[in-house]
Amino acid sequence: MDINNLCDGLREKLEEIGIAAGDTVYVASDIRYLIYSTTNKFGADQIDSALDILTNTLQEVVGDEGTILFPVFSWDFCRGKGFDYYKTQGEVGTYSNWILNNRKDFRRTQHPLYSFMVWGKKQDMFCNMSNQDAWGVASPFYYLLRNEGKQLEFNVESYKGLTFIHCIEQWVKVPYRHYKYFYGKYTDANGDTEIRTYSMYVRDLDVYEHTKTTHQYLIEHGAAVATEWDGNKLTVVDIAKCYDVVKEDIINNDGINNLSFKDYEFHYDTQQTIPYEVRNIPVE
Questions:
Q1: What is the domain count for the chain?
Q2: pTM of the prediction?
């Protein structure tokens, strides 16, 4: 068995569910099964090779006109630990961190909380974004919404991997979230460090909320397509269609199909509980 054949059939499966040349694709992943199967078939020392082959295959599918984004989100900046463009690791998946640490053809975007590793035609455009607001109109998220972005969910359910639900909560201004401004040390791509401020539309701390969006819900509403490849579940979400579906549910149905709360009764038309919040400014 040749590891170079690891991704045989994957290209056809991705094309079957709507990934095409020229697409801009955000990849959310859980690669535990891929690591398990690679170790069983080829040995643990071949995991890096397997991830290289998988990444190369994704690049081949979108081609030179396409763009791929891997999330390397980190909340160290919120915790007062600062952000280092090259050193701060992501907290949302092994595959994304592997890209960060191993693939020099990818570059990182600038936001310290919600950054992406980007490859492809739009790499410079994404990496030059200097959005202060994590999910605002100047962010990669909003660009994907307005420019036919797609999210590939590789062995991960929507309620775990679809950060866009929180973006939609901001864009429709749900009352249990508010802007919070964080200050901290930021070390940029040139190695220069300064105090910066960034914001996020955070959840009120006394509101216990989770997203519960499923692949099946999005598929039934025409916002996603799914298939399987070699035991791996692949789902492609049309970001603009997802926005329309979830927005309608939040505004007209109090999010009953996408949001879950504990000891809090959500009604979309209620007044925002907190206007904004500012984290302590560092004294150094």
A1: 1
A2: 0.96
